Hints:
There is one protein chain. By secondary structure, the chain is α+β, with helices and mostly antiparallel strands. Helix content is 52%, strand content 7%. Strands 3-7-6-8 form a four-stranded mixed sheet, sandwiched between helices. The chain has a two-stranded antiparallel ribbon with strand order 1-2. α8 runs parallel beside α9. The longest helix has 23 residues. About 2% of the residues have low confidence.
Amino acid sequence: MVSVDIKSNLLSWARERAGKDLYSLKRSFPKLADWESGCVKPTLKQIERFAKATHTPVGYFFLEEPPVEKIPIPDFRTVQNEFTARPSPNLLDTIYVCQQRQEWYHDYALSMGEEPLSFVGTASVKDDVVMTAAKMRQFIGFDIDERKRMPTWADALRKFIDQVDAIGIMVMCSGVVMNNNYRHLNPEEFRGFAMADPLAPLVFINGADTKAAQMFTLAHEIAHIWLGLSAVSDVQASWISNHRVERWCNRVAAEFLVPLDLIKHDFQKNADLFDELNRLARRFKVSTLVVLRRIYDADGIAFNKFQQVYQMELERLINIVAKGGGGNFYLTQAARVSKRFARALIANTLEGQTLHRDAFRMLGFSKLTTFRELGQSLGVF
């Protein structure tokens, strides 16, 4: 078979971009090391297989130099306040498909004569955090006392997602790219992103994170929508971001979920701190890290103590997620793509306005039976 003359460094770039090493790909591509060294040239069919394995567009391998890929929305991700490296294919592909969904829904909303949503872009980072959080809670119908009565974080999160979706924000929550269970999203790379739009605001939550952490991510990204500012974030309640917008959104999210006046009233200083963290986390249905930060904000503990306990809690939660004991809950297809979006797309497709092929691509599956079952579960037909 005829070999393809491509730059060998493009193969190394694609492998590293996908987060893979030579050993992990050796079984499928035994000559990969020779390809990368330039000693042997792959065939076109081999390049196509390699592109699929590394989630790389085939056309990239015929460039002179590796492309510089940038996230198409503002990137506010940091790790320990250091700016992150290049985005992974999984993050990029997730953003791209969400952009396609948002563009479709924007056009759909226009065709239906829908008015711009009144809350998008109404806030400013100069606004008072407590007042903004209170307005958001009232508009969404978020009842803190109702959360207290819910048995699990999963129940509280589902309720929260449904409420946000109901006011017009498409909420998409998944731990994988589309429906590909071999392409897991890494919470250490990103926890969520917001894509502001007056007709089709969209929030994506990394479903591979813990349910308690997803509560905070959703509140943070909603604050972005209130500002009218798109961004991809690696949000943590305890970190002080270099970005003014991120700091404000973090403060609003913390106040939204755990009002400072309630913490001051409920926190028992004489009780064991770890017992209090767990009790208050159950009460507000958030992570212990969020509660810890709010206790510190309420002057309940000193800064040195806060740092010490935060590190201990962070390590404990990382171990829980690594063991699979506190991560994903079962997400239906509707939750992955937003009930609002799925209902509109399925109805529009049944009316003949959208091709089934395009609908399947945006929903992430290819079977008509799945399409019909999803429509039935959402009450479309």
